[in-house]
Amino acid sequence: MRGLPLCGISLALVHHGPVLGVIRLPLIGRRYWAAQGLGAFRDGQRISAAGTSTLPEAMIAVGDYGTGPDGPERNRVALAIQAHLAEKAQRVRMLGSAAVDLAFVADGTLDATITLGNHDWDMAAGVVLAREAGAVVMDTDGSPHTPDALTTIATAPGLRDAVLDIVAATTTGTPWAATAGSRAC
After folding, report:
1. Given phi > 0 = left and psi -120 to 50 = alpha, else beta, which region is 134?
2. What is the pLDDT at residue 118?
3. Complete DSSP assignment for 118-183
């Protein structure tokens, strides 16, 4: 609407979770697709998540701010996540589109993304894309991401635990907190 080039069209086929995803970023000329078991591609070339394994090397996106009844609390948590990441990560970004964030994790442009929310229509295509590219896609407790997840987190495999530690430290006592002992390995 305002000419920001980071916007896209995101389509997914969901059958007990996303199995096919297509993301088109027309203003920057990129097309992504992935299918369960077939890998992930950008403009016809196979892609993979970054090999980054330490936060000081990592570029991480945090989803945009929330609105609605849970907006103020969600925004406090997002600010806390950003503050913790700012002290440890190479760079923290807020790009404003879950589809862009997940596509960029899939192709290695970003090393991780954290979105305090999970609407299938925003996440499904990017979830299958990131998974097929080798990223770890999970909920706040580290369990695999599902349509029922509270949060959408995608990371380069080597950043999984470091990102989960920051999320755990900043979500305690909030609706996005992992329950005690629920962090999956």
Report:
1. left
2. 80
3. --HHHHHHHHHHHHHTT-EEE-TTSSBP-TT-S-EEEE-GGGHHHHHHHHHHHHTTSTTPPPTT--
Q: What is the pLDDT of residues 133-148, one digit of tens each?
A: 999 999 999 999 998 8
Question: Model pTM?
Answer: 0.93
* Phi, psi for 123 (deg, rounded to 5): -105, -30
Distance CA 41, CA 50 (A): 14
**Where do we find the tokens 């090999």?**
51
- Which residues is 23 bridged to in the sheet? 10, 32
Nearest CA to 113 out of 74, 165, 79, 64 is that of 64
